[in-house]
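A reminder from the course coordinator: this example appears on the midterm review sheet, so study it carefully.

Given structure:
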């Protein structure tokens, strides 16, 4: 009995030792449990690991137990306004590109039409540099038709003689006269006071007289004067009224819409129209006085601009 009890105890001790010599290793995700017995032999058992748990995907939409509050009337109106504005933006963008394409097509059509009549336009423009009436007698019967008004003067003024031009421009003395040069066969630009070729006819600008068509009997001679107008600088001649009840020269100039350049002994002036034009150009395009007056000098003579007088003192 003693031997059997001893064997039983020895077997239990061996089992205990075998359980205490377990070694666990891992090879490529496989768990290997090694048992070492008393004899040193190894017994391995391969355990295949279970797959990792998959993450749970939440269901789409809110849970059924959550209630979505309904839109108020204000929120619904705002949403409708946003939808309408989005539709309008899309429509306006489409309209913009269609209108732009239509405008380009119209511009192309207009340019093609002008290209078709380009030769005719050039011919008509060149006719303005010729005088087909140089051998014709004026309707008044006093001379040949050699004088016309420049393009920025009278509208559709017919070619006439010198006498008719002076009489019809008594109230428009700042219109440039184009006189036909029969020798050079070109139009030459002249001031109103230079049109007359008869010394008996004084074509100076009359100021202050009740009847400006006739020269004032109280003043026999005219004086040289510089008048700056919107169409250029005029080196002309004026005659002040010398009647007993006539106002002074400053008042006569202002009555004729001429602003004097100097307070005393004035010999140059600016028209109110050119002062208004300078004011507008200075405000809008920031054009200075130097550039503005130089542009007026080029309107007077674009070739020999330096010969255009600035005033009666500076030439």
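Designed residues:
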């Amino acid at each position: 009995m003693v031997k059997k009890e001893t064997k039983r105890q020895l077997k239990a001790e061996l089992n205990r030792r075998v359980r205490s010599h377990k070694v666990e290793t891992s090879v490529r995700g496989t768990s290997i449990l090694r048992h070492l017995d008393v004899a040193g032999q190894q017994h391995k058992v391969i355990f295949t690991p279970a797959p990792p748990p998959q993450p749970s995907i939440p269901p789409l939409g809110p849970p059924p137990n959550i209630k979505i509050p309904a839109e108020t009337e204000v929120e619904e109106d705002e949403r409708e306004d946003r939808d309408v504005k989005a539709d309008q933006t899309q429509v306006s963008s489409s309209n913009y590109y269609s209108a732009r394409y239509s405008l380009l097509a119209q511009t192309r059509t207009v340019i093609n039409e002008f290209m078709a009549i380009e030769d005719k336009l050039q011919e008509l423009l060149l006719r303005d540099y010729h005088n087909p009436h140089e051998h014709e007698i004026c309707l008044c019967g006093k001379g040949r038709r050699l004088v016309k008004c420049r393009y920025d003067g009278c509208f559709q003024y017919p070619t006439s003689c010198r006498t008719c031009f002076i009489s019809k421009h008594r109230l428009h003395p700042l219109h440039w006269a184009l006189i036909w040069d029969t020798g050079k066969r070109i139009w030459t630009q002249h001031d109103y006071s230079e049109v007359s070729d008869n010394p008996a006819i004084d074509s100076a600008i009359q100021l202050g007289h009740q009847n400006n068509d006739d020269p004032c009997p109280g003043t026999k001679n005219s004086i040289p004067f510089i008048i700056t107008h919107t169409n250029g600088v005029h080196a002309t001649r004026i005659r002040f009224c010398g009647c007993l009840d006539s106002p002074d020269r400053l008042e006569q100039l202002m009555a004729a819409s001429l602003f004097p350049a100097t307070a005393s002994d004035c010999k140059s002036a600016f028209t109110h129209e050119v002062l208004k034009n300078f004011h507008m150009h200075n405000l809008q395009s920031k054009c200075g006085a130097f550039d503005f007056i130089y542009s007026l000098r080029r309107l007077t003579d674009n070739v020999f601009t330096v010969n255009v007088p600035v005033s009666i003192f500076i030439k």
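The radius of gyration is 54 Å. Residues 21-33, 35-40, 42-47 have pLDDT under 50 and may be disordered.
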